[in-house]
């Protein structure tokens, strides 16, 4: 599944470092698209151009304050992820809580970085997340799996499964989807892959693949979906190579 992707990644690595302004424009493009699509998947109604305006510090009339905060908070969370990658830091459980704290900042401060204390259900999904009293145990199992059992996995497989298992636990009252996509890209970026964008137009396939992973423990469809998006991001970077 990954042979062609790995070849493209090797070609990108052979042409690094990319020019400074090329990297800057690629980062800005992906930060905007990642923020727009991740929020749109969760129901944010800001358009791509409106999201761009909010990132530039301008308020969009007729849109809720929460939608503005979701954009600003997501940008800050991406910056936080980039810092973890640049410093080559590990991903302990407290880092996940920090990411969630950034995502929910000023939206729901009471639950920002705090595991939920209520049962939740995922609209349209067969999978039911665990009861609140199981969350800590399941998160510890996830972190143990991540720390000790994923070293030989391809980065796309590791990131996809981290995303899927985390969002299946649904440890927070809100913001789990955004955090799961941040964790996915954190794993990819740690291994030198560009961040990917899961597009809102593919939301149905995305949700169906996740539900299959949660109910049947079959991660194949989800990994293939993520692999396609990873290849798209690699292609974008490769188009910037002029030498």
TrEMBL record:
ATP binds at residues 174-181, 206-207. Signal peptide: none annotated. GO terms for molecular function: ATP binding. The keyword ATP-binding applies. The active site is at residue 170. It comes from the Bacteria. Transmembrane segments: none annotated. Keywords: ATP-binding, Nucleotide-binding. This is Fic family protein.
């Amino acid at each position: 599944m990954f042979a062609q992707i790995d070849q493209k990644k090797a070609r990108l690595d052979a042409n690094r470092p990319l020019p400074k302004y090329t990297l800057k424009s690629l980062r800005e493009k992906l930060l905007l698209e990642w923020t727009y699509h991740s929020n749109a998947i969760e129901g944010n109604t800001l358009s791509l151009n409106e999201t761009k305006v909010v990132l530039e510090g301008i308020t969009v009339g007729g849109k809720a304050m929460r939608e503005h905060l979701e954009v600003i908070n997501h940008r800050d969370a991406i910056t936080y992820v980039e810092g973890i990658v640049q410093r080559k830091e590990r991903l302990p459980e407290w880092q996940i809580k920090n990411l969630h704290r950034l995502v929910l900042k000023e939206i729901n401060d009471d639950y920002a970085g705090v595991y939920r204390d209520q049962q939740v259900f995922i609209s349209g999904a067969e999978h039911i997340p665990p009861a609140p009293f199981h969350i800590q145990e399941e998160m510890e199992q996830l972190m143990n799996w991540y720390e000790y059992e994923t070293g030989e996995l391809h980065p796309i497989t590791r990131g996809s499964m981290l995303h899927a298992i985390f969002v299946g636990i649904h440890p927070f009252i809100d913001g789990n989807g955004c955090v799961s996509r941040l964790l996915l890209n954190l794993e990819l970026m740690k291994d030198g892959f560009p961040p990917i964008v899961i597009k809102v137009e593919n939301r149905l396939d995305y949700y169906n693949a996740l539900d299959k992973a949660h109910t049947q423990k079959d991660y194949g469809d989800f990994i293939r979906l993520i692999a396609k998006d990873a290849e798209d991001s690699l292609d974008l970077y490769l188009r910037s190579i002029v030498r």
